[in-house]
Every structure is written in C-alpha cells, then in structure tokens.
Design brief:
By secondary structure, the chain is an alpha+beta fold. Helix content is about 20%, strand content about 30%.
Length: about 210
C-alpha cells in the first residue's frame, strides 16, 4: 500500500496530513527518508518522527442479529448488538444497519476502509433479504416494485423472486427502512425481514444471536 495510507491506518491522521509529514522529512522507511507515493507492506519498518509505527490489528465479525435488538450503543430501553458481544469486541462498529424488527447478517468492524467499501453506494454491494408479507403480492405490484417505486427520498427499485407472501429481495442500496417503505407503498406490510448476505459475506450457518470472526 502507499505510505500515506499506511501512516493513516497506523495513526488515525488523514492521508493529506501524512503527505505533509513525508514532505517535511518526518517519515522513514527502513532507515531511509520516505517519498510521496512510496509502496510499503507489513514487512517494512516505518518510523514517524523517529518512532516506529505499526498497522492496527483489524477485527471483523459477522453476527446473526435477532429481532428486538438495535444497532447502536445506546438502546434507550432496548437491547443492543453489544449485549450479544464480549466486552473485548465492544469497540467494533456496525457496517450499515438493520432496524429493531429485522434480523440476520450484520457486520461489525474496526477497519474503516472495509466499512467504506461495503457501505458506500458507489460500490454497489448486493444485499439479499428474505421477507414475509401480511398478504400475497400480485404480479402487477411485483412489476411495479421492480420498475421502481417513488418514495419521499427517491426511487426505490428492488429485485424480487418468490411467490405469495414469501419473497427474496435483492438490492444494492440501503436507505432507512427502504424495503418496508417500498412494500407499504403498494399496500403490503413486511412482517418478517431477514438479511442473509451482504456483498461477499453470507450468513450461512451462524446461529441466531451468535457471531464468527471473518
């Protein structure tokens, strides 16, 4: 990786600030003054103002969130994801959200680059959900949703497969309660919503309320 990114990951300063330090001869790689754009890896010895710096150890987990838990540190009377985790993992932050009434795959990490890649809309990370509706969805309403439903915050287009009340929903964005609001716009209520995949990550056999390190 580039030296400015290495410094940013190791110290939490910005890449722009890292470049300034390099220009001001504050950075050395393996005993030599660093230059802008230099490539380094974890076998290199990087020093900032004479002090060796190391990349932080990143941890990412996949959790099967049960219904009834909120994706925040303060539950305001509700249970939170952190009630399911050991204290040593409480520093991790969720990537995106699942609302309190939804369940399934949620990723938590301290890797800011990974979180950005997964959550930024420009990266088009596919998410797949299993849903159950309060009543059967007609072909006309299915086609409407796949063509796009105009919500107050923009157009919502979902890919659907299934029949009757049970559907798999595929989407590449993730606006607040988007699936629920989209179906509500055609007169249906989502009574169960369960995420089974997020980008390359899948829930697989993780039991409800449990997690694995990935």
């Amino acid at each position: 990786m580039r030296i400015n990114k290495y410094i940013a990951l190791a110290t939490n300063i910005s890449r722009r600030e890292a470049d300034k330090l390099i220009i001001n001869n504050k950075v050395e790689i393996n005993g030599k003054k660093a230059v802008i754009g230099a490539e380094v890896d974890q076998t290199d010895h990087v020093y900032l103002s004479g002090k060796k710096i190391l990349l932080k150890k990143f941890t990412t987990i996949a959790l099967n969130k049960p219904r009834g838990y909120v994706c925040s540190r303060r539950g305001q009377g509700s249970k939170t994801l952190y009630d399911l985790l050991p204290k040593q993992l409480n520093h991790l932050k969720p990537v995106g959200r699942l609302d309190k009434d939804s369940s399934g795959l949620i990723l938590l990490t301290n890797n800011g680059d990974l979180a950005h890649k997964l959550s930024h809309p420009s990266n088009h990370k596919k998410k797949i959900y299993e849903i159950e509706l309060n009543k059967s969805l007609s072909d006309d309403k299915k086609n409407m949703i796949e063509r796009g439903i105009l919500l107050e915050d923009g157009l919502s287009k979902l890919q659907l497969s299934g029949t009757g009340k049970n559907w798999a929903v595929t989407m590449q964005e993730g606006r607040n309660r988007q699936i629920r609001r989209t179906f509500s716009a055609v007169g249906c209520r989502v009574i169960k919503l369960h995420r089974r995949s997020f980008g390359d990550y899948k829930l697989n056999n993780i039991k409800e309320g449990e997690f694995i390190i990935i």
